[in-house]
Design a protein that fits this description.
195 residues, mainly beta, Lipocalin
């Protein structure tokens, strides 16, 4: 065996020993451990709400997050602020106008690591009330493998939007306080491989 072949043999062995890069896999949500909500503000009270129906689609590679592409779709008619009268109002043309705009969506187009461990800047179009704006959201993303071998990827974060920029311009009713423009959106999503 020549010296040249001897020199290349260790390199070949080392290359074969490297773990194969996993391709992104289709994902689903662990709904029992996922939630999407919001907080709207007035000078008198804060309205804390959530959505009971939402879903995820796309692909995820927990070991190479920038290669992932995920879309979240929210059924806005399932809004719940623990006040039936207010929830009915939120479904009308004054707010979400669910008959015309039944879904709110976010789709990631870029996932970039930050200097902080487990925190990524996730960028993509956010659509609410038929209006689309590009947002960048800091998201804490962690991976855990359960005893049955299922890999759970948790994405948790919060960000602020100007509701009027999305066409939600209603301010107040008779004898009611003015609703502030700032709305905080919160999410805690648990992604699992689609079965």
């Amino acid at each position: 065996m020549t010296l040249r072949r001897l020199l290349t043999l260790p390199a070949l062995v080392a290359l074969l020993a490297l773990p194969a890069s996993a391709a992104p896999v289709a994902i689903d949500l662990d709904r029992a451990h996922s939630k999407v909500g919001f907080v709207a503000y007035t000078k008198i009270f804060d309205a804390v709400g959530k959505f009971s129906s939402f879903r995820a689609s796309g692909t995820l590679d927990p070991d190479n997050l920038p290669a992932s592409r995920i879309k979240i779709t929210i059924d806005v008619a399932t809004v719940d602020t623990d006040n039936g009268t207010r929830d009915d109002h939120l479904r009308t043309e004054d707010f979400f106008h669910v008959d015309k705009f039944p879904n709110a969506t976010f789709e990631s187009t870029g996932i970039k690591p930050t200097k902080k461990a487990d925190i990524y800047n996730v960028t993509g179009p956010l659509t609410i009330h038929g209006v689309t704006k590009t947002v960048t959201v800091p998201v804490t993303i962690t991976k855990v493998e359960t005893k049955d071998g299922t890999v759970h990827t948790r994405a948790k974060g919060a960000f602020r939007v100007k509701r009027q920029a999305f066409g939600l311009k209603y301010e107040s009713g008779l004898l009611m306080p003015t609703i502030k423009d700032d709305v905080d959106i919160t999410f805690d999503l648990n992604f699992v491989p689609k079965k």
